[in-house]
Amino acid sequence: MNFLGDDKSAFNRRALFTGTTALGSGLMLAGLNSATAAAQTRSDSRGAGEIASLPRVKQELMQPPFAPKHEQVAVGGPKVVEIRLVIEEKIMVLDDDEAEIWALTFNGSVPGPLIVVHEGDYVELTLVNPASNAMEHNIDFHAATGAMGGGALTLVSPGEECVLRFKAIKPGVFVYHCAPEGVMIPYHVVHGMNGAIMVLPRNGLTDKDGKAIRYDRIYYVGEQDYYLAKDEDGEYLKYDSAGEDFADALEVMATLTPSHIVFNGAVGALTGENALTAKVGETVIVIHSQANRDTRPHLIGGHGDHVWSTGSFADAPQTGLETWFIAGGAAGAATYTFRQPGLYAYVNHNLIEALLKGAAAHFMVEGTWDDDLMLQVRKPSPIRS
To answer: Fewest CB within 10 angstroms: 251, 288, 346, 347, which?
Structure first.
């Protein structure tokens, strides 16, 4: 199907690169017009000067699974936290069979970087779409209020950039993702264009009794579903440019059956030599997002000591969970204090998705073994009569 060159196609080249559909276009334009008018009305509001006087900090974003440097308890009053996300359309290899996808990414990674601010801070994002890209992009922050999460104010064509500022008023962990319009919303999301933002309470995390919860390490796991098409011989198709797989991808997406379900972009991205590390006695917090499908995180050999499965830090965490649930289009958080050394598997406990599709990670933990917690009383040997 020559959908890129056939103007009579339901999705011609212009529709592909702009994401235009009747419903999606109407909703986005309505949101854009109303949001722009509202922004113009507020431009001279009393709060503008106050915001301008706030201290400004530039956050150095890290490639997942790592998080930017941050304070767990806010120091001083609200700040304007400057963030820069550069959109990159790039080929990513997904597994040992060389399956590949033209990934749509924020800062070159799947997922995009974890952003960390405190409740009451202002996030000031510069979103850059280099001229070398083929598509329009934007960003919808589930942590933001109004204008389709900012999507209506951030639609940038190749060669453009924009700046969006929003106030982080809800403490928790939230998904962000590209949401151009119509069918291009799921297309961009399942091509990797999503990430997470953590909005910490100003006084830090607490349990149900208000006791402080602190962590020694933080890791970000972004779970990603891909929908790769195959040829008549069962081989994954490859394409020369971003967007060329549009028609094929939509057919696979319509089946609701992913070809891959992975952590941090590719099979094995967080296993083996790429395993996450910790030490016995350390408390680790894992931020876990899935922008499109439900998931069930589980730490084999450990537990969720404190779990915010809905992502809301305004609510008391659940405790002592074996497996927790994170809804599609959401992010959650869980802490665990490691008590034994060795290898731990962190998986989506739909074990088919973990072991056959790739949704698995490893923790390699250093320390001294505690026989009181577990002991091999007898090694495997012939059955005694």
So the answer is: 251
Whether 322 is catalytic is: yes
Q: What's the one-letter identity of residue 200? A: L
Q: Which two tokens stand for residue 331?
A: 């992010």
Backbone angles phi, psi at 357, to 5 degrees: -105, -25
Whose CA is closest to 147, among 156, 135, 138?
138
Check: CB of residue 56 under 8 Å from CB of residue 82. Answer: yes
Catalytic residue flag (residue 191) = no
Look up tokens 């060329």; give the residue.
Answer: 244
Is 288 annotated in the active site? no
Give the residue among 106, 103, 101 at the shortest CA–CA distance from 83.
106
Query: What structural domains and CATH numbers belong to the chain?
Result: 13-39+55-202 (2.60.40.420), 219-366 (2.60.40.420)
What was the pLDDT predicted at 33? Answer: 53
Among 11-20, 168-177, 321-330, the minimum mean pLDDT is found in: 11-20
362 catalytic per annotation: no
Instruction: In whole angstroms, give the CA distance from residue 202 to residue 191.
Output: 34
DSSP assignment of 317-373 equals PEEEESB--B-TTEEEEEEEE--S-EEEEEEESSHHIIIII--EEEEEEES---TTT
Which of the following is catalytic: 118, 188, 288, 362? Answer: 188
Please confirm, yes or no, whether 140 is among the known catalytic residues: yes
The whole-angstrom separation of Cα 257 and Cα 261 is 10
CA atoms within 13 A on the CB side of 119: 15
Say if CB 207 and CB 79 are below 8 A apart.
no
Interval 90-148: pLDDT, tens: 999 999 999 999 999 999 999 999 999 999 999 999 999 999 999 999 999 999 999 99
Cα angle for residues 101, 157, 10 (degrees, 5° grid): 65
Residue 193 known to be catalytic: yes
Q: How far apart are the first and last CA of the chain?
A: 69
